[in-house]
Amino acid sequence: MKKILLIEIILCLFFCIFPLYSQSIDNNPSEESVETNADVEKKSNLSFGFEFLMTGLSNGGWGAGFYYERHLVGHLAWKCGFGHSTFHIENTEEYCTTVMFSLFAEYYPFSTSLKGFYFALGGSFDYLGYFGNEIMPASIQKEFTSIYPLLGIKFKIYRLLNVELSCGYKFVFKDESKTTFGNVDSYLNSGPRYNASIKLII
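^ that's the sequence the OP posted. Answer follows.
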């Protein structure tokens, strides 16, 4: 897991997502009013989940994930995520595929939009599937739930782009009556998490 964390910190490069559409301002009275209207109307963000790509690449595979965030009311917002990775398990003839769904409640104490400092609390459901030539024990645990508190900050760098810096800790619950296979903590991205990303304002 330390290896993945180190890779994520070093490779926290900004993932630029180009705008999905272009806006015409020919019929608007002024550039200032366009910016004001955009700030009012744009209440959601879309971003790429680097942790799934890093999990796949560090194990000789691939991965991808996305997060969608939306303002709810006042200082509150919610965020959901989906991620997947597939890779080879070291020193075995087995492969692993992961699927993750997550949901967070967010609180922005100093803002009523998706900018500035925030606290969040949520959780995720993770599934680990195995395929290959290994004989897997019948009692292996494949489904995991977790609690994930985090805090972060967002700030605008362009009209349709926000930068986010965040850190948190993913607490994964394991069934002590079942066994696990491979480096499960690494596959689930459990423990301390650090992230930097660019979010497309939509």
